[in-house]
Amino acid sequence: MFLKNCWYVAARSQDIKQTLSTRMLLKERLVLYRQQDGTVVVLEDACPHRKLPLSKGRLLGDNIECGYHGMQFEGSGNCVLVPTQDRIPPNARVRAYPAAEKWGFVWVWMGNIDQADESKIVEVANYDSQGWGLTAGGMLEIDCHYLWVTDNLLDPSHVAWVHRTSFAAPGTDDTPLEVQSFDDGVVVSRWISDQALPPYYAPLVKFDGTCDRLQHYEVRLPSVCINRGVYTPAGTGGDVDNLDERAYVMESYNFITPIDEDHSAYYWFQNYNTDADNAEVSERLNEGAIMAFEEDREILEAVHLGMKFKTTRNLNLGLDAGSLRYRKLLDKAIAAEQIA
Questions:
Q1: Global pTM value
Q2: What would the pLDDT profile of 143-160 be if each residue is shown by its tens digit?
């Protein structure tokens, strides 16, 4: 079961052009394209006649022509032409999905059309802020259920073992965690005091010596994951609202889109408060993120198979508190949606 009345990332904006592109979201096959005015259209990828994918047809102006018998559909999903007959059947239409573009992505509303509201797309506070840099981001397909990914993004402890050469540093294995719940999500966080910088961040900070480090792992419904790292000179940490002027802040936005029960699409970008116009730093950060996500992918794909085909019971640890809370919150939201 998936939460439907919410926005999911379907593609990077740069990847959707005036050609037919296909995606699967929540086990539903979609076809995407841009109209001549630049507006993105998202339709069910199935002609209502014999369910041939419309993506196997062609784009004629702003309409899709089915590759079987030439039926044409406009961006609203309505059929506007049936070449083999004069009358267009009243039920000759395909489902059209609300779409929006924000933060460099195409978002699709998968639920009740009447409830689609672009203001519900997550805000990115410093996306256009002066002095803040931005990475190009990207997309990675992972052969696992999307909740194994959100579990991972509510687990600061895994960096000590999975990311030994990048994000790991003293204190990431045993410093106590704080868990906070909200109406639409969960945050797992901790301050680690007076420790060496992780290798990934050491060349980026603007101060010398050890640091106080904030690990902030946040997941919001349906599967928006925000990781915030703060690195500030030792003795100046502990209050995220009153940071030292030398503090380095990295905000990683991760959007996990379920493809089906066994596959997920992972979209991301990073936002950081230094080197705003330094393309070399931006590229280095993005390459580091890709390396780390590949490390995660190897683990999570194996976890998916291990849990799917387990022959003995698994157990939970204290570090799973955040992910267990989030799963309960998600289950509650899905159940409420089913009743409505």
A1: 0.95
A2: 999 999 999 999 999 988
